[in-house]
Model the fold of this input.
Amino acid sequence: MNLIPARVYVLNSSDVTTLKKLLEYDPYLDPNFIPKMPKEWDDAEYMKKHPELAQEASEKKKAAEAAMDKLKNDKELNIIFARQDYQIKDGVSLGLDREKSYLYLSADDAFLEAGEAKLKKSITSLQRAPKEIENQIIDGIEHERQKSDQGLGFIFGS
Done:
């Protein structure tokens, strides 16, 4: 049994692509958000040999510092679903409405509250699944995981 709280949300299947982008995004790994710099720029000897790079290096370092400051101060940017336990299931595979998809999200309560607000802001069709469906999906996922763990135990002899 999972001790970390979990929730299930229902949304229109047409919104799954948008949902996947939101779930997979991590600003700390986004080179468009935090500029990447060549490792050589941290080497004082290298920079002495290439003074023409000094201004560019300085500008990129300032941009990276500004991005990191923004990350430190922006609570919504720090709601990072990619670091949580989630699964997307389509309604057909669950024997439910074929026009709907379901998001299973497991995280601590504080994250779930903030995450739900961010999800609803980005995906208007998203809403919390009815309790009966939520319990059915959570139980199904836990059952799948137990079967998977047993299968691995059989394969590796544990």
About this structure: Strands lie at 6-12, 85-90, 100-106, 127-128. The chain has a mean pLDDT of 92. The CA atoms of residues 151 and 157 lie 10 Å apart.
